[in-house]
Structure formats: C-alpha cells, structure tokens
C-alpha cells in the first residue's frame, strides 16, 4: 500500500464534489487511484453523470505517437473528444463541448517538464472553462522528478507554443495542481479551480519514493528513468538524430546511422558531466526516424539524479555531436507542434539561446548563469502556489 494518496483517491473520499453533477473528464489511461481504478470508472461509481471524456495528446490509451492527430470516438458508451487533432484549434475544447457541463475533472499525469504537453492542455481547458463558467476540479499527483530542482530559462516573446505554453522553467518542480493555481492567478483570474491535493507526498520525493505504481503516461514514457532524462533528451527531437523512438529505450538512446557512437561516448565521458555517464551502443528503430536502419550512438546512464542536470546535458550532447559530424548534423526542418516558421529547438527551450550554444555561437556557462538567475526568481514566484 502506498504511503501517498493521489488527488483521485481523495475524490473517492469526497464524492459530494461530483455526485449528481454533469461532469467531463480530462484524462488518459494513467489517471488511476492508488489501487489502479481508472478515473472513468470511479466517477460514475461516485454518482457523477459522466457526459464525456477529453483526451490529451496520444489519445485516451496512449496509442498514438507524438504529433499524430487523434480523432474523437467513444469508450464504454461515453464520447471521447480528442484535444490533439490536425490543427492548433483542435488543442482547445469547443464551447459546445463545455456548454452542458457543471464541472471538468482533470487528472493528467505530468512529468515535470514544460514541453510535456499535458500541462498545456490543462491550461487551454482552464481558459475555456473560465469562458464557459464551468468549475475545474484538478486531481493532483506527485511530480515524478520531485518538487525541488529547477532548470531552464523563461519563454521569450515570440516563442510561445504548445511545447512552451507555461510561464515556468523547463524543469519546474511543480505538480499539475500547483500549476493550475499559478495559471489561475497569472492568466485566468475568473476560473473556478478546486485542487484535490496529494496526501503524504513531500517535495524531495521522486516517484519511486512514493510507493505509487508507475503507469506510462504516454507511449514513449515507459519508466521513471525515461522521465529523468527527458528534459534534456527531448531536445534530440529538434534534430536529425534519433531520440530512440521505435525502440524499448526512448529518450535514453541518441544516435544515427552516420554517427560515430564510440567517439561520442569517449568525448562525453571525458567532460565528466555531473550525474551521468554515456555508453556506446547500437540500436535499430522499428519506426520513426531511421526506421529499420542500424544507428550508432550512446545510451544515457544517470548515476546521481540529484546532481544530474538534464537540460544542460542535452545541449552538451548536441554540441559534441555537431563538432564530431558538422557535415551530417542538422536541425529539424519539418513543422513542429503546428509551427513551421520557428526552429523546433527554439520552441522547446523558449528562445534561440540553446541553438546558439549547440552551434558554438554562445557560451553554455553564460546561458546556465541566466537560467540560475531565472530559477531563483521563479522559486519566489511559485512559492504561494506550492501545496506540499
């Protein structure tokens, strides 16, 4: 039995919040209680009238890959409305989908990284519910990476997108419930927000210290180890390198058919980056980039997660690959999360700085110094919204 109770479990103890009300759910298959009861079964059991389910990127059961449009459907007789379709407009719930609701229950398993899109989906729903006069009930759950460590800079003017929607660092150390309260004050002051907090969680705790079962929140987030490197390894998406999608170790692998993985591992390990080592390996993705091709590359091995700085590490990895293979390394040229005129790396990191670091035009130390200043400011800004 877990020593931590998630917000959904607390809802089960406070059924009056939903009993007899017309409600919708914003969730996916990872929205479960400590006993693994899914939210869409719990709400009707508590006496709620479940009108519809809103599903984030990847769909209700995480069947779709990244940036893959998902259509609306039904499950167990309940309409499922996709909030990730073929256009930016599809990311927002339509007014008619909220018009017959009294409350929207939100339980999205975030992983503590700004570009993990579930928090942005919640933000859009907060705005829509404010307009519609619908109460939002956020069932909170722990931040898998703990609630203390921050890393990354702000989103600069002109770089806001679905992967840079929130006014927080890349690694923000907040829960979804805490983010909802911050967004309420910063953007949606007339939204009616109720947060069911986690019980028993302490900010220093990572997911594997809570006793809660890990349920993959998206198809390429199978383990806590994946989530640990994601704030840095996700930057590989913005390049012509494979980030390990199509393998059993997404984001833990970085490589390409043209890459000298042995040389890369030697270079990276010689830098003695804090809390991480790199092992030369070969892998063959079954889908996505370089599907069916053997890639040479490295596997990330986190040796000390409290000292590990994934975002800075990700920039160093890309910078060293570009030095090794200037003739092959390239930034992603296709549109990224519905944006075609801004480089994906700039959208992810919220400014051109990371790209300039990788290209050798800006000092990483200078950028990190700016991140640290912003983190100190954000630490004070977020304090009123912390729930543990």
From TrEMBL:
Residues 229-387 form the Peptidoglycan beta-N-acetylmuramidase NamZ C-terminal domain. PANTHER family: HYPOTHETICAL 460 KDA PROTEIN IN FEUA-SIGW INTERGENIC REGION [PRECURSOR], PEPTIDOGLYCAN BETA-N-ACETYLMURAMIDASE NAMZ. InterPro entries: NamZ, NamZ_C, NamZ_N. Residues 23-224 form the Peptidoglycan beta-N-acetylmuramidase NamZ N-terminal domain. GO terms for molecular function: peptidoglycan beta-N-acetylmuramidase activity. It comes from Thermoanaerobaculum aquaticum. Gene3D superfamilies: 3.90.1150.140, Uncharacterised protein PF07075, DUF1343 (3.40.50.12170). It comes from the Bacteria. This is DUF1343 domain-containing protein. Coiled coil: none annotated.
